[in-house]
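2024-03-11 09:14:02 INFO worker-7 job=invfold-0412 stage=load source=structure_tokens
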């Protein structure tokens, strides 16, 4: 089944708004021209698939972060306990200006580096500066399948863009 048929039959993820992709494709005279230009920008695909693009996301609420490296998180809690300070006192001594490193995969945000800052920000109710990297592929999220040919995806999105006004 082509992507176009897939989309027209309403089988794509109903939470995904394809309008930005369709509008982007309309600026080209053919699907071949779109492909030769490099296709869809990854930032656009990420925004459509995940609702954000890593470059636009520069801050994050520590409440949405998940712990990937449990030993690192346990080390922070151990340091707070051994400091003799309350968690708030300890947290107020942490410099929150440096961004933490965060990955996005499996629909969640994961702390890669910055466990001390994450703990402090969460304790103090502050947001964090963040470097976010999206580790998921946007096309499978958009199409609901993991094995899809990129060229066919681009061509079919282009074809759909020419069938709408």
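2024-03-11 09:14:09 INFO worker-7 stage=emit residues=165
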């Amino acid at each position: 089944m082509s992507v176009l048929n897939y989309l027209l039959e309403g089988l794509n993820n109903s939470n995904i708004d394809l309008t930005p992709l369709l509008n982007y494709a309309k600026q080209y005279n053919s699907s071949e021209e779109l492909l030769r230009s490099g296709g869809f920008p990854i930032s656009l695909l990420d925004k459509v698939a995940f609702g954000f693009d890593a470059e636009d996301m520069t801050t994050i609420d520590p409440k949405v972060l998940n712990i990937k490296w449990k030993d690192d998180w346990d080390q922070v809690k151990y340091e707070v306990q051994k400091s003799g300070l309350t968690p708030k006192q300890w947290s107020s001594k942490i410099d929150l200006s440096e961004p933490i490193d965060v990955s996005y995969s499996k629909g969640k945000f994961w702390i890669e580096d910055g466990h001390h800052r994450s703990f402090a920000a969460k304790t103090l109710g502050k947001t964090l500066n963040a470097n976010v990297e999206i580790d998921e592929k946007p096309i499978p999220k958009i199409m609901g399948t993991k094995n899809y040919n990129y060229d066919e995806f681009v061509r079919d999105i282009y074809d759909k863009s020419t069938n709408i006004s």
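2024-03-11 09:14:09 INFO worker-7 stage=report msg="The chain is about 45% helix and 15% strand."
2024-03-11 09:14:10 INFO worker-7 job finished
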